[in-house]
Amino acid sequence: MPSYHQEPVALNPAFRESSDIDIIADEKHKLATTPPSPHISEDGLTDLDKSTLSHRLKTFRKSFKYLHDLTEKQVDDFMASYVIYNLDWADEKQMIAALGPDYKEKVGECLKAYYGVLNHLCALGDVEKMYIPPLMSKKATVLENQLMYERAIAREIRIQPGDKVLDLGCGRGRVAAHMATISESQVTGINIDPNQIGQAIAFNKEKGLDNKFVVQDFNSLPLPFADHQFDAFYQIQALSLCKDLKALFKEIYRVVRPGARVSLLDWVSLPAYDPNNAEHVELMGRVKPLIGAVGTPTPEILEEALEEAGFVVVKSENASVGGLQAPLIDKVDIYFRAVRQLILAGVKLRMLPYHFKTLINRLCLDGEAFVKMDKMRLISTSYWVVARKPEA
Ligand SMILES: C[S@@+](CC[C@H](N)C(=O)[O-])C[C@H]1O[C@@H](n2cnc3c(N)ncnc32)[C@H](O)[C@@H]1O
């Protein structure tokens, strides 16, 4: 049996048979009672930390080398790609004015230039999986919170051993590896960025996992899959990059079997956000580029698009304890600020090429605006919607 971070566990059959309300209650109880770090040894590291530490060092070195060897064009394209985060799918006129009539393709090019570099920048920190998870436990690290949340997804979409699962915007295939391991399923990941797909294939192969990874832009439909091919579906923080949510959800509806469950974790603007409030608008203008969001859906937009595709929404809530992600955003922000200081010193001493300064300065911009918006409950990147496709 392949191993990845934690031992494979079959999902609790009692959990699978519970009603939706029981599942939510059970999940909340588990979150409240799960000790975040069950085995803390004398050196203060958890078993989980120890199993991932050597892997983390290896990844850090690889990504550092990749960033070191970036060409001038790659750096320029990365910086130029930020143009898309000042736009919004909802304002097509503005999109066309900035990018031209073939703006969908232009956005795709920017996404590749952006993620091709960003995934390596993220790998320098504790966000090799490029998402800040819902806050499940304040005492746990970002990675532990990710692992806890991914287990919650597996339970919620009721993955069974042998199931085929689709992961949209699959990053470097780390979530897919964890998911396949804990549930003994096979995950297919899609991603617009060949660089991440290459890493996902290598990583999953190294772990002995039979997961599949395909380069595919989810704004280019149809998806290359047969009807009813998958038993379950999840995506983590990729939907703001989708031009047409309704069309995408219709495609997902087509490729999952009747009775399948789907899980979306994403960035949303919340009811307290007021587009006529100058402070809110200014904060939004800083946070969208920081988190790399093009669209700004609301929970209602996600729900309506799912329902129009034929799904039945069974859960729609902020998955962070108390509805706030700020403690985790702070952790990531503080870490990257420390990395930034080291990088700036390295550049000053001419030990690192200058482009490291350009990249890290861009990455570290506006972390505090993200924390502020989260605390004001204007936005969240931990909004969780679960839906099911009715039985035929
Ligand atoms: C913010 S990251 C989300 C974290 C990611 N799910 C993970 O596991 O690391 C967004 C992911 O979606 C991918 N992506 C962005 N736009 C896409 C598109 N149009 N089609 C397919 N994948 C896309 C990115 O390359 C990136 O891997």
From TrEMBL:
Residues 166-262 form the Methyltransferase type domain. GO terms for molecular function: sterol 24-C-methyltransferase activity. Transmembrane segments: none annotated. It holds the Pfam family Methyltransf_11. GO terms for biological process: ergosterol biosynthetic process; methylation. InterPro entries: Erg6_SMT_methyltransf (IPR050447), Methyltransf_11 (IPR013216), SAM-dependent_MTases_sf (IPR029063). GO terms for cellular component: endoplasmic reticulum. Keywords: Methyltransferase, Transferase. It comes from the Eukaryota. This is S-adenosyl-L-methionine-dependent methyltransferase. It comes from Coniochaeta ligniaria NRRL 30616.
